[in-house]
Amino acid sequence: MYDTAILIGRFEPVHTGHLALLREALVQARQVIVIVGSAFQARTPKNPFTWHEREAMLRGALPEGDRTRLTVLPVRDYYNEAVWVEAVRNAVARHSPPQARVGLVGHFKDATSSYLSAFPGWELIRMERQGRIDATAIRDAYFGATPATVAHALQPLAPMLPPATQALLEQFAHTPHFATLQQEWQMLRGYRAAWATAPYPPVFVTVDAVLRCQDHVLLIRRAHAPGRGLLAVPGGFIEQRETLWQSCLRELAEETNCALPEATLRAALRSVTVFDHPDRSQRGRTITHAHYFDLQDAPLPPVQAADDAAHAEWVAIDRLAGMEEAFFEDHFHMLDHFLRLTVH
User: Fold this and answer.
1) Fold (topology level) of 203-339
2) What are the tens digits of pLDDT across the range 253-309?
3) Do 215 and 317 form a contact (C-beta atoms < 8 A)?
4) Going by CATH, does the domain composed of 2-177 fall within 3.30.70.1130?
């Protein structure tokens, strides 16, 4: 018998495969801690539900007596495995007794399951995969329906869906979030279909400009899907005859009309960091080169949105930590890297 059993997942949404792992954890330990990943993100077709909504699905699938033994902890995606592992360990340590015997419940589905090997000292409680249950198929059926046809569209998947999940999905379909996510899901499907005949999966190269001045950072609101209305740093795809530096300057000027001379930006450049996590963008494998500039105490340059930006503004850095759920893709984590917004 373990003191604590750990289950880690995104649960987008909770299905019967997750529930089988959770039940095994409850058999194996007095206390079960579920780590809900991809927490504090903006809603996307891949991550449509808040961690609170996923907690409700998990608890709703259990008898009352088992719910009292369950602790649900949200952990953000750091796009850095070492930092993420430390965050998970720290969260578990705060909610389990000292020197606890800890078991980690899971199964090796594919490359995304490699995290199961990242916790030496925790004993792996290995389970076989429960059929061919896949949350991606559930989301595709869901967003391919209308609010009026959701129940019918999910009917073939009913054996995979606990009643609490089915109920939340049907209720959520009648919220404004569903329509927004459905439009983005359709856009992303079309985007990927356009590259389906390529001889090999494409790798996209982009640039981003993290521009700091007087303890403010320059942000835009995206005008188009994916991420319409979300906050981002100025940036975009490089063009065929540009260097990364030229692309960065062009995107900064096009999206914000920030008219700083190249020499000024060259003097303000502090570092260039590559962000290349395979899951950082739902458009496909996208590697970005983030250029970090610090104008220090210079006057805030005037900005005005254009091109792919609906709005451009200078935002105080001390406000950013409370705005995490409003950011596109990994842009909050990009800012965190340069500005140390969270405590790792």
Assistant:
1) Nucleoside Triphosphate Pyrophosphohydrolase (3.90.79)
2) 999 999 999 999 999 999 999 999 999 999 999 999 999 999 999 999 999 999 889
3) yes
4) no
